Amino acid sequence: MKRNATKYPGVFYREAERIGGPGTEKVFYIVFNRDGKVIEEKCGRQYADDMTEARAARYRAERIENKRPSRKMIREAREVKPWTIDALWEDYQEKRPDIKSMLKDKSRYKHDLKQHFGKKKPSELATLDIDRLRLRLMKTQAPATVKNIMELLRRIINYGIKRNLIEPLKFKIELPSANNLTTEDLTSEQLARLLKALDEDTDQAAANIMRLALYTGMRRGELLGLTWGAVDFERGFIAIRDPKGGTDQTIPLNAAVRAILENHPRISGSDFVFPGRRKGKHATEMRKSISRIALAAGLPEGFRPLHGLRHVFASMLASSGAVDMFTLQKLLTHKSPMMTQRYAHLRDDVLRRASDMAGEIVANAVKTAREKENGKVENAGWAVACVGKPESG
User: Fold this and answer.
1) In the chain, what percentage of residues exceed pLDDT 90?
2) Of 263, 253, 181, nearest to 216 (Cα)?
3) Euclidean distance between CA atoms 168 and 171, whole angstroms
4) Which of 112, 224, 246, 339 has the most C-beta neighbours closer than 10 Å?
5) Burial of 26 (0-12, 13-18, 19+ CB in 10 A)
6) Which among 50, 56, 39, 48 has a CA at the least distance from the CA of 4?
7) Tally of CB atoms within 10 A around 330
């Protein structure tokens, strides 16, 4: 096969039949000296491996400096250990413990990726598998959460590719858009049914976490990780801990929440309000009980109880007209006012109704004045008529 030179020293290519498509593709090779020997190695294919002249030149430089193993060594290493998604994830956790999102990543992997992809090798994945995962997640998760889960899968696979543990995928993992602007709400009838279901359910721990979501607007993770030490009964505040090491925030301990917490049992040996089964850990989920309560209350399909009740809390305050956007931002512990703007239209409705009311008041005032004026005219006419009428006798 003819060797074709490139503009890079020690890099050439041969034309070969394209893998997985019509026509031909370039197969790149490098040549270099080591210990007095001339070494020739195959770098990769133009389309199958996404190889280019420039990448082949970088590959050659790394081989000369002995920073990169040969393709043969990589192939042998892959054959020794089957690099499944599970294996890559274990290695990824060990090598990258510094990642801030690792705690959430562990939960995402355990609940959303392991069951479906854990035992598979990346080379066994197809675009259909990724599409099915995305559609499955979209049924129960927020768009931003789905994006985070898909991004984690892509990160794990890219980790393996960059360390030459696996071959690159033949397709790209496309991430969905994270439009989280859907605001969940409940009607007054649905809310009444929910409160009744909460009172009647046997799992009052799950009922209380839902009550707190409704009366505080706290996030799911904040509720599950809530400690008694963060509740200041004396001053009337709850401290919201920032899991990423940022500034902690506080929200008021209102009367309803105070009553819930004062009657909530404290478990000996744990500072968590909702302790988990493992000692020293908080509860990670209460899906079974929460789903049962939501079903008993007849909540809308697709309503996410804890996340949705946070939205209900915000919507009720915004639509009341008694709370401005700045105050609502502080209560929701939003770092940016833009995050609170999704509720602005509810306050706009209040302002619109108030404006309409002002118009009605003016209209009624004008109407009353005219009626009084018309009444004076009628009375004056009646008086004139009486004066001009001769007395009977």
Assistant:
1) 29
2) 253
3) 9
4) 112
5) buried
6) 56
7) 15
The pair of structure tokens assigned to 180 is: 């989280």
Sequence-distant contacts of 180-188: CB under 8 A, at least 24 apart: 180/142, 180/143, 180/144, 181/342, 182/142, 183/311, 183/314, 183/315, 183/342, 183/343, 184/303, 184/304, 184/307, 184/308, 184/311, 184/312, 185/311, 185/312, 185/315, 186/299, 186/300, 186/303, 186/308, 186/312
Chain length of the chain: 393
What is the pTM assigned to this prediction? 0.47
Tokens of 273: 């309000």
Report pLDDT digits (tens) over 127-152. 888 888 888 887 777 778 888 899 99
In one letter, which amino acid is 125?
Answer: L
Q: Give the tens place of pLDDT for each residue, 286-334.
A: 888 999 999 999 988 778 888 889 888 888 887 777 777 788 888 888 8
Contact 168, 50 (CB under 8 A): yes
Residue 17 is classified by DSSP as E
Residue 84, phi then psi, degrees to nearest 5? -80, 175
What single letter denotes the amino acid at residue 56? Answer: A
**Per-residue DSSP letters for 166-234?**
SPPPSS--PPPP----------HHHHHHHHHHHHH-S-HHHHHHHHHHHHH---HHHHHT-BGGGEETT
Are the C-beta atoms of residues 355 and 348 closer than 8 Å to each other? no
What digits encode the pLDDT tens for the residues 143-199? Answer: 788 888 999 999 999 988 888 788 888 888 887 766 554 556 788 888 899 999 999
Structure tokens given for 65: 């400096």
Strand partners, 232: 237
